[in-house]
C-alpha cells in the first residue's frame, strides 16, 4: 500500500519474552559485480541484490548514529485490521513453504503493510522479538501498540511482498530486489542474467562462477514478488537459447568469434518480449550447438558440452537446443527453457532428457531478432516437465499477431483453431516403428491403447515412405528434391545473416584469416559458392517446399468436418529406449545408439518430416526403461518418448488432446534428476 510509513528500531529485551530467539545467519558482503550490484551471503546461500537500480528509493530522516548500512528485510502484506502473532506467523510460513529464495535470514527487518487501517498488537511485537527482528517498517495505515522509536520516512512507496536488501543512510532507504544464486552443476547455461531495472527493459549478465567446479551461478528472483499478478507466466523462470536476442545481453550463437564482432543486443526478440510481457522472468542464456548446427557432443569446441542429468549422467543432450532440454530435466528451480527447431533441435533434446518439447507448425511464432538457420524452416519451442504448464505457456505464447508472415515462409496463412476436433486415426508408420529397444515397445503399445480408448481412435499401420512416393506429383513425392530444397533454405539463411558477415569481418580484422568455427559449420562456409546457392535458388526452394506442404495436407494429414487433423502420426525421434552417450566410442556398443540413425527402409529421418512438410511435431515422455551403464557399471534408467505429428495449424487441438491424456493419467509430470518417473 502506498503512503507514509516509518522505520522503527526495536531494541527488545530478550528476558521479557519466554519464546526463544531465532538465530539467523548474518549478512556477509562478498563483492560488487561489474554492473554495480551486490553479491552477498546469508550463511552458505549466495544472493545477488540489484543495488544499482533498486526497486524503491525513499527519502528518510534517519539518525545517522542509528542507521544500519545494509539489512535483509521482508515485505509483508495483509488485509487484517488486527495484526497478531498468528497473522504474521501464517504469512511467513506461507513464504517459507512456497518460495525457494526467502528464508528466515531475511527477517532482520520487516516492512508491514495492510490494505485496511490496522494495529500491530503486543503478540505480534513478542513474535518479532522471538524472530530477533531489529527493524520494523510500518505502512501509514498500520500503527503499533506501545512506544516505538521511529525514523520518519518522506513519501509513498509501493513494493511487492517478499525479501529485499535494504540500504539505510541518513537521508534515504533503498530496497533492492534479491536473487538466489543457484549453481549450474550440469553446465547448461552460458551465463546467468537478471533484469537491470533501469527503466529501459535491459538485462544484465551475471558473470559469477563457483571457483571449485567452474559452474555458472544463475540468479532467480523470489516467486513472492509476483503474488497477485494474474498474467499467465507471472514469476515463471525461463532459460533462453543463445540465438535469441535479449536486450542488454550478448547473443553468442554458441560462438566466441561471433561474440567478438557483435555488440550486446539493443532490443529483445519478439518471442522473448512476449514472454516478458506475460510475466516470465529471463534467468540466463543457455548453451547451444554453434549456430544451431546438429553437432554431436564430441564436435563442440567453443563451449563445453552440457551434461544430461538422466541415467548415468553421461548421456547426450542432443542438439542444438542442448542446454535447454537438459536444464529443465536437471533443475526444479527452472520452470521453462525456450529453444528453436529447424531439423530436430527441440524434439531430440526433449527426447533424450525425457521432457516435453515441440516443433510447432511452421509460422506459429515470429523469429525476428533470432539468429537463423533456415528463415523458412526455423520454429520456436519450449521445454517443460509438466504437461499442464507446457500447454499453458504455449497457448499464451503463440498468438496470431506474432505469426510469421507468408512472405517469410512461402506457405499459406496460418489458422490455429482451439477446439476438441480431435483426430480419428492413429497412424503407425512401420518404416519408423517399432521402437529399437524391445523393452520400450510395450510402453508405446500401452500409450497407443490408452489413446485409442480415450478418443475412440482407430490404429492404422502404413509405410510413410511408400505412401509419399506413390503421390502423383513428381516434386512432392521426391524425397531427394524436397530435402534439397530444405537444405537450400537452411544454407542460404545462415550464410547471409551469419556466415558471410562473420568471415568477412574476421578477414578484415585479422589479416585475411578465417574465423575459428566448430567443424559442423566450417566446411560449408570455407567453400560456400553463391553461384550454386543464392536468393534465386532460395526463392525456388520456397516454392518447392510449399508444393510439398500442399500435397501432404491433401493426401496424408488433412482436415475433415470433424477433425482439424484427421490423423495423429506417431514415430520416435530419439533412440527407441537405448542410451546414447556424449562420448563417441560408447555408442558403438550393441546396447547403445547414435542419434539420427536413418531407418533402413526410410528415405528421410523421422525428424525431417515436419521441417519438409510444415506439420506440428510434439515430443512427449511416456516412460523409462533400464540399461546397464558403461560409465557407472550399474543399472540406470533412460527415458522413452514418442513424437506426435498433426497437420499444420492443429497445434492447439493437439495440446487439448495432451491435456486430456494428462487428466487420464496417461501423460505425467516428470521429475528432475536421474529418473524421469
Automatic annotation (TrEMBL):
Residues 1-18 form the signal peptide. Residues 231-401 form the Amidase domain. InterPro entries: Amidase_dom, Arp1_N, AS_sf. Keywords: Signal. It comes from the Eukaryota. It holds the Pfam family Amidase. Residues 51-180 form the Scytalone dehydratase-like protein Arp1 N-terminal domain. SUPFAM superfamilies: Amidase signature (AS) enzymes. PANTHER family: AMIDASE 1 (PTHR46310). This is Amidase family protein. The lineage of its organism: Eukaryota, Fungi, Dikarya, Ascomycota, Pezizomycotina.
